[in-house]
Batch of 4 targets.
Target 1
Amino acid sequence: MTIDWTAVRAEFPSLQHWTYLNTATYGQVPRRAVEANARHWADREEMACSNFLEWYDKADLVRVPVARLIHATPDDIAFIPNSSYALGLVAGGIDWKSGDNLVTLADEFPNQLYLPALVDRFGVEFREAPWERFYDAIDQRTRLIAISEVNYATGFRAPIAEISKFAHQRGARLFVDGTQSVGALEFDVRTAQPDVLAVHAYKWMISPTGVGFMYVSPDFRKSLAPNVSGWRAHRDWRNVDNLHHGMPVLKDSAEKYEGGGLPFGFMDAMGEVAAWMVELGPAQIEARVMALAQCVRDHLKKLGADAPDRGSQIVAAQFAGVDPSRLARELKAQKILVAARHGFLRVSPHFYNNEADIDRLEAALARLL
């Protein structure tokens, strides 16, 4: 399928006024998603919420393109407000023993680095290791490995399938935060085999803040206890005229981790985006995004930057003796949006960007440098 990227770009009105190269902070939400959200509120006005159970039917339909995007099944998908929620659910659902440990990569996103706040009371050891010594930190007492597929500051892309195999051979579970990758890069749970993949959809899934999804493998669902309970916990929760009282009987699907109500409207928007991405093709999207990222690296290197390829669509560059925070502020004043993270100037193009955006970035940086 040949994609008209100019037509794709037209879905994002803000790009008419901004050079937006900062999807690793926030994704731009397409018109079709905004319209899907608006349709939900129009439906509320018309129907006075009399059809609220139908909203859950629509939510189940959203599971379908989300699952297709990562080669899962709809039963594997639970909706979450953000990836922190997912990580807390996993940390709270494991039967920890004193002396167990959990492992993450050095310089991870704070979600992973703050894990001791959730498990310290169980006597769990927290291990933070650089990539060069990552596998050495994992042993037979490792219960959980929690990492991002793509590092938010450096753009380092972890080899998830390799890590998963190593973890499972030692009895450890693998939690992957795909917030900085899914939507831009292909992800196949059949080959990567994480136990959990959590995605807050507001970045590369170009959806509203406060909605996302969590894949939970069928095997892990057998042992991962839900630690959020609500009126939808019982498997017959749709029988609202006579809701079950007493201990709930849970479904086998990942829906059992959702608890209560869902962010309707926002979910309609995410479902519209997921269906669009499936239609465009994840492989085509990744090829587009990676080509744009390489174009960014080439342009920045012409200006003297150190901008290595770390295997992802996030470009982390350094200019010797130059404060990246100052560059980001001065670029913003020219309506060019990038970010500064941990000493790097971070440039993160998505499929809605084009080479003209990168040319404008290079020209502005040349003046500032």
Note: DSSP finds 13 helices and twelve strands in the chain.
Target 2
Amino acid sequence: MDKHNIAILVARPLAESIFDRRDLDVLAGFADFNAVGSLPETITPDFMRETLKGARGCVTCWGTPSFADEMMAGNPQLKLIAHAAGSVRALIPLSAWVAGLRVTSNAPVIAEDVAQTTLAFMLTSLKQFWQFDDITKSGGWSGGEAGRFTTKRLDGLVVGLVGGSLVGKAVLKLLRPFGCEIILHDPYICEIEARELGVRLVSLEELLTVSDVISLHAPGNPDCRHMLNARNIPLIKDGALLINTARGILIDEPALIRELATGRFNACIDVTDPEPPAPDHPFRSMKNVVLTPHIAGGHTVNGRTMLGRNVIRELYNYLTKGVLAYEVRPEMLERMA
């Protein structure tokens, strides 16, 4: 079998974290590619143009510059872009699909990672591990005192998922063994699919009103901007938990801050708008907010190598059989994160 030319367009430190040596040996069995060790610290458009010459497929990731239309037109032999990260909305122009290019993304792989982070936020927050850690490290040991227990278990709680995306569906799957009631708000999911998923479709207002846990998994597109705002954030019930591992743009942050300041409910915030938040941003000091630096998906050690392994699998399946497991079609872009 003749080997195919593959261009790796990933910054060296990142490439070293996602590609396992054994997986690169598999790639070498069916493709010629530029060595990971020779990659630059930063990928530039000039490097892309030079490396893409003669390449039938390429690998991209976080930090890869956007493909310009002229770059696509100048490489007619390019047939596949295998994106080792999630969304490709800002990476690939529509002209690529018009020209017949195929695109694959690791969004489904990262979704599993985000879902596990979301579940971790739920369990540790409902059990109040953060607060008990503060108590015990400051010398206290009052967990067993009468009236001290205000923790919750997931069984019997109402969990509201905003968005039946890849992540939303992965979270739903993880929640099934816990015996909670799961409701969903997503205008793109019909009643038939909802029944198959085992969830009840509700309005956003009802979801915010009745949910003990609210988890956001909607795309960061203009239609979803500030879907949680000054009008509906006050509907969140006392004692609830709000989790955002999706996009900061989904929430009107000043409105959320005003409501969180009352202490009525708690929040786990992994994404903000903009990022990073200002050094004096209220999220950084609020006792009822757990703030993490956009690490929900794609940043675990073993998860990183899964990203590299999957793009190599996709490259092989396309180049040898013409099939892709995680293909991105242009009509999917609008609803991608």
Note: The chain has a mean pLDDT of 94.
Target 3
Amino acid sequence: MNSWKVLESGVDSALNHMQMDADLLKDLENHQQPILHFYDFRTPSATYGYFVKPEQFLHLENAKKYGLEIARRPTGGGIVFHLTDFAFSVLLPRTHQGFSLNTMNNYAFINAIVKTAIIEMIGKSYDIKLLKSEIDEPVKEASYFCMAKPTKYDVIINEKKIGGAAIRLTKSGLLYQGTISLGLPEENFLKEILISKDVLNCMKNNSCLLLNQFSSPTTKLKLKSLLAEAFCCN
């Protein structure tokens, strides 16, 4: 079992965090050590998947008004708002026992660890599990927003999504960029930012807001500690 490196890069711009993850993935072949990367955003931010065009889904002028920094991730997936979430990344070299050439197997492996940390955080009285199959969502635009549509192997609580991620595989290993919901951004903000108001309803219907009551710096520290403990056991 390879020992984990827990990396904390602190508060910085979304652009710099995304670039750092890309650099870590590029250099993974040289180190062959799994990495758990924690970071915080200097300003209200949103990141989007490598192939997403944010101007098709967000009012960019309104985003500027709110000081929202928007950065492209080196992974895929949809748009994630980093205002009320806990963001982190995982890098696995191909030599790690949990690595698979199948992206969904990697997603299930890592999210099972995330689930363990969340259970330790809030207790076993909630129905916390990995989603076994895709949920049909009639709103097409919802698939372009991480917290608007649960996908297979997402972490869910009482049938609502609390954790999601995007993965990129390379010859060196993989990069997983994850988010844990601590609540949704303010509704007025979303109404002005989102082009499709149906997406807002999907986020409200499909996102778990259970951790909203725990949304504080102390809680983030506890969650960080539990994630580090859970990953370092694998």
Note: The domain at 5-232 is CATH 3.30.930.10 (BirA Bifunctional Protein; domain 2).
Target 4
Amino acid sequence: MSAGSAAVELSGCTVVLGRNRILDDLSLTVPAGSVVGIRGFNGSGKSTVLRVIAGLIAPAEGSVTVFGEPPTVRVPRPRIGAAIDAPALYGWMSARGYLRTMLDLSGVPDRGESASALERFGLADVGRKRIFQYSQGMKKRLSLAAATLCDPPLVLLDEPTNALDRQGEQQVARWVADHRSSGGTLVLATHRPFDVHLCDEVHDLDQGSFVQPEEVRVDG
């Protein structure tokens, strides 16, 4: 897909869970090769937007396409990397074993991708350590490593620098710059100023709808 075309298209997406309307007639175009931020407070619907793009939630109304196809139909998962909400990390496994398992589940042989991903986020020296021994920041780094395995053209990240120290933030910033320069697309959900500064464009979300920044309701 060439730069300037759409990697992601959401059109009139509405998501209802129980009696709650989580997203309300939401439309979004994410150009290929761009870094797009979804900014909002807790409960605004940011993570739900990512889950819709990933094909984990089907909208009750509207449509979503990723690289021109519905994400649950013909978009191979190796083309989408995601770290959404709290990742399911198996504490008894080593970090290296966890990444190799992720590759196996995607049908991709490990030709050094797991080692590269650990190196990318500063985990190369602790790759054999059991995940239950990891700090919250280390677990965050591992979830980022898993999301970026094999350099998928579209990556979805939820609060990518939350729980990270300054070094971790800079590792994320370097990866974002490299991903963008190689033509990759990134959609991130965040409320953190550091993450916002990584974006080419930012859309403010409040109670399931995009709004102008001054319209965001702090008490929502």
Note: Residues 214-220 have pLDDT under 50 and may be disordered.
